[in-house]
Amino acid sequence: MMKVSNWSVNRPISVFMMMGIILLLGAVSLSRLPMDLLPKMNIPVAVVNTQYIGAGPLEIENLITRPIEETVATVNNVKHINSVSTEGSSVVIIEFDQGTDMDFATLEIREKIDLVKRFLPQDAIDPMVLKIDPNALPIMAIGVIGEDIDKLQDTVEHRIKPRLERLEGVAAVGVSGGREKNVEIKIDPTYLAEQKINQQQLSALLRGENINLPGGEIKDGSKNLMVRTIGEFRSIDEIKNLPVPLPIGITTRLQDIAEVRFVEEERTQLARVNGIPSIRVTLQKQPTFNTIQVTNAVNREIKEIQQELDDIEIETVIDQSLFIRRSIGNVATTAAFGGLLAVLVLFLFTKNMRNTLVIALSIPISIIATFTLMYFTGLTLNLLSLGGFALGIGMLVDNGIVVLENIYRFREEGYSAKDAAIYGATEVASAVTASTFTTVAVFIPIVFVEGMTGEIFKELALTVTFALLASLVISLTLVPMLSSKILKVKNKKSNKVFQRIDNVFQRVNDKYIILLKWSLQHRLGVLLLTFIIFFSSILSVVWVGAEYFPEFDEGTFKINIMLPQGSSLESTEEIVQKVEQVVADYEDVEVIFSNIGGGDEFFSSYGYRPHRASVDVRLVPYNSRKQNTLKIIDEVRNDLIKIPGAEITVSNLSLVGMGFAGEAVEVEIRGDSLDILQDISQSFMEIIQTVEGTREVTSNFTEGRPQLEVYLNRDITSLYGLQTFQVATSIRNIIQGMDTTKLRIDGKEHNIVIKGEDYLKDGIGNFMQTPIETMLGNTVPLEQITEYRIAQGPSAIRRSSQVRTISVTAAIINRDVNSVISDIEDKLQHYPLPAGYTYQYRGQMEQLEEAFANLALAVILAILLVYMILASQFQSLLYPFTIMLSVPLAFSGGALALLLRGQPLSVPAVIGLIVLAGIVVNNGIVLIDYINLLRKESKEINDAIIMAGSTRLRPIAMTTLTTVLGLLPLAIGINEGSEVQIPLATVVIGGLLLSTLLTLIVLPVVYSILNDVKLHIIKRE
Question: Are 978 and 967 in contact (CB under 8 A)?
Fold first, then answer.
């Protein structure tokens, strides 16, 4: 270490150039670092989707879901298998162990499925295997408002959507809320039968006429001409006047035997912005692009479009980048403010701007150096990596403080500026190196943390590691070099303020020496008091409770509305209007965006769901709000209970709410019979509703749509030469319609659909009169060959680990997850479950248990690694044990801080404990290292302890205060995006304060006791 300090002091130009290179590379790296809310996450989940049109949930489960579950269960690294069997569709969700290569895993799934394909129904569409990609979620949702909704849709489709799709980084643009125009050909099957023609023949005629075909080439003199036969329809009149030859020997026009007209499709989705009909536009980004970059480009384009199209209004409802920008900006501001507080502490202690500048420079240079390392290791600027800066900003000056303080001491002893810089830095070089590596070492075990927890916090760990290693290099190079040039030693008192600070510190030092002497005389009493403090503070964890992850207050929430199966779109719209009126009365609400008839998420719907709707609500910015999002949600929830006719739930659109950790309370009930499972779930719902703090207790079991089941009488159908497939196809084509071909007008395609007259759908009686064509060409009424009944079954059958399940879920308010689950478990233990039926907790509780199990291992590994580094540093197995006693004392302080702050124990809080294990030993290293140094100079044990304590009190106080004040703005958490950092910073501050106070007393006492034990052992030998 002498060589490093000697080199830096003797070669100042080289040091300046090295810092210049760091600043230059860091500035370029910062400009190219992508910005996002969270680190890139690899979600090890694959989905197998199989379509079997017309089959019910029970048939789907038996014929498709079970065979696929059984075969994919043999794939390597499978953790969980869940499935959902619905009408016409099977979805099998396979969750793998973290770190699984998903490309290889999906390939293996396809190989396994190939083995069972031949056992699946012949009409089933081949299973499709997909990887879950978090980038598939839309980053923006936009509402386009105008007077004429049909004209508006045309504008969006032709003038807005193409421009957005062309933007770099935009993967897909979805449009919903409008309606398409089709050419509808209404037929009366009975009349057609009289004319000896049927629906299929009309369809074939239209397809055969509406076609353009190449006919080769012909010669015209010296030129070759390509021949094309043009037959495509150019207008609806052409379709109406299409000649239709009839088997009876005459030709008629299509309009004479059917009604031909342009009609608007029945609306399957409605979109509204603040109650005004609109067109909904959603955007997805390409996986390799950054959210901020893409939304910036989109917002610029929207601004230009808005200026060009002044007859429409474009309202951005969901924009992920807003919260990302504000959160990251707030964390950066908080970190900067913490850095300023740390520098202020330095100035008050050093009483000189030059001396302060020597250390303060290590903060920006260390951070800029970290940007370079982040860029080359593929990290991003996100809430966690910037949180790493905020966490480490107070620690970045610790090494510099210790080095400068020691150099200053040498200067006061009369050494020259150059010699003081070399000897002062060399004397503490091994101590600061050890303290840095102990802090860095605690982040290594995070690599072993599995699941989403490890994915998220790895970037924080790497950021802090890079910053601390940079600060170590700077403290051993830049600080000695600058100290040799600009460090000033003042003999006179600077001014009254500094004199008062010196007087206060001197009094504290005197009191500390008195207390330390007393402690060395009452060692057992000190240890007993320490144990009491430790155990009482650890018990406080019981009162604070536990949760998986704090919810972000993003200022957005979603209202999901579900009417009974079979409800019309109009009925759903009426309920949505009532919901909108309730929500609009809240003054903190900025935008209300409704999607009626769509899916559960804020992107385009999967299928026609007229009985469902969702309302996205955006609140005014965080600093303009009177209440936080969760309180507003609870009030809205209570108001919406009064609206009858629908099941309405409200959820927070946050990291946790979007499925990062699942539901707050989720009880999964397993068994074979759906009826028994439903009975148990109803009982569980009633029990959970009685637990304090629970809201919206619901079950995921829903009755299917009422359906008219038509059964063929095969004895009769065989006489007519009819099969089930023919009858079913005829019913579908007449009732639902038959897509025949397309009409192209002005570059836009319109479907041409042939369907039966409306009277056939008006009541069961009319429907049963639907004529079915026989093999002989005549027709027979449907009622003559079939029987029917109205039935209702489950809309979906869910399975987990190849067993049927129903889940009961609940939201919570003003309580932590762990305490709510404990209360629920106390009540459920007395419930008499039938034989063969079990339940388990999923959602956040499952994630919480898994994360805490992994983090407990990480804490143990961190402590062991720190001990090993200390043992290597001191070349002793005994002295490191003394220093390690500061770790449990730090955990005590962290637990007390959580209790005082009202924060439950969560994953970020446990990460804070891991960080503490590396930070708190630094003070012990500095103290014990100096005691050993004095002991080598033949100082008596108690004199060495007292002198070391008095000498090291100042740097220990400075490093503790800089770290605490650097984290203080983070712990207060008054801005957006602070939810993750609050528990982490709270634990570190509490642990550091208590451990520092106790370290200055307890560690010397334990050192003294262990020294006596060592002497006793030596005497016995």
Answer: no
The residues with which 170 forms a beta bridge, in sequence order, are 285
Q: What's the token pair of residue 4?
A: 């490093």
Whether 603 has a pLDDT exceeding 50, the answer reads no
For residue range 929-960, what is the model confidence (pLDDT) as tens digits? 788 888 887 778 888 888 888 888 877 887 78
Q: What SS3 class is residue 718? A: coil
Give burial (CB, 10 Å; 0-12/13-18/19+) of 374: buried
Phi, psi of 137 (to 5 degrees): -70, 140
Query: Taking a C-beta distance cutoff of 8 angstroms, is the pair 288, 168 a contact?
Result: no
So what's the pLDDT on residue 659? 43
Greatest mean pLDDT among 232-236, 688-692, 971-975 = 688-692
CB-based contact 219:789 (threshold 8 Å): no
Residue 11: C-alpha distances to residues 6, 16, 366 (Å): 8, 9, 20
Are the beta carbons of 424 and 496 closer than 8 angstroms? no
Helices 451-486 & 362-376 angle (0-180, nearest 10) = 140
Do 451 and 100 meet the contact criterion of CB atoms below 8 Å apart?
A: no
Token pair, residue 563, equals: 């009417």
User: Would you give the distance in Å from CA 262 to the centre of its chain?
Assistant: 46
Unique residue bearing structure tokens 């248990």: 849
Rounded (to 5) percent helix, strand, coil in the chain: 55, 20, 25
For 659, which DSSP code? I
Q: Name the band, by pLDDT with cuts 50, 70 and 90, for residue 558.
A: confident
Pairing assessment for the beta strands 779-781 and 771-773 based on DSSP bridges: antiparallel
Beta strands 738-745 and 748-756 are: antiparallel
Contact criterion met (CB below 8 Å) for 167 and 298: yes
Encode 840-898 in three state secondary structure: EEECHHHHHHHHHHHHHHHHHHHHHHHHHHHHHHHCCCCHHHHHHCHHHHHHHHHHHHH
pLDDT (0 to 100) of residue 355: 74
**Non-local CB neighbours of 887 within 8 Å, separated by 6+ positions:** 863, 866, 916, 917, 920, 921, 995
Residue 403: C-alpha distances to residues 427, 435, 476, 949 (Å): 9, 12, 8, 17
- Give the DSSP letter of residue 601: S
Checking DSSP bridges between strand 748-756 and strand 181-187, what pairing results, if any?
Answer: parallel
Return d(Cα 292, Cα 169) in angstroms, integer: 10
pLDDT class of 390 with cuts at 50, 70, 90: low
Angle between helix 674-689 and 817-828 (nearest 10): 120
Q: How crowded is the C-beta side of 385, counted as CA atoms within 13 Å?
A: 27
Helix (H, G, I), strand (E, B) or coil at 348: helix
Q: CA angle, corner 307, sides to 619 and 322, nearest 5?
A: 30
Contact between 557 and 650 (Cβ < 8 Å): yes
Beta-carbon contacts of 800 under 8 Å, excluding residues fewer than 6 positions away, are 80, 81, 82, 83, 668, 670
Which distant-in-sequence residues (6+ apart) come within 8 Å of 538 by Cβ?
891, 892, 895
Query: What type of residue sits at position 599?
Result: G
Are the C-beta atoms of residues 813 and 695 closer than 8 Å to each other?
Answer: yes
Task: Using alpha carbons, list the distances in angstroms from residue 808 to 679, 689, 696.
Answer: 12, 11, 10
- Rounded mean pLDDT of 794-810? 88
Looking at the chain, the number of H-run helices and the number of E-run strands are 36, 30
Token pair for 706: 């009422």
| Strand bridging mode 140-145 / 276-285 | antiparallel
Q: Are 921 and 435 in contact (CB under 8 A)?
A: yes
Interatomic CA distance for residues 481 and 417, integer angstroms: 10
**Per-residue pLDDT for 434 more than 70?**
yes
| Closest to 37 in 3D by CA, of 496, 811, 605, 653 | 653
Whole-angstrom distance, CA of residue 259 vs CA of residue 237: 12
User: CA 1020, CA 403: separation in Å to the nearest integer?
Assistant: 41
Average pLDDT for the chain: 81
Residue 495 pLDDT level (bands cut at 50, 70, 90): low
Residue 137 CA to residue 143 CA, distance in Å, equals 17
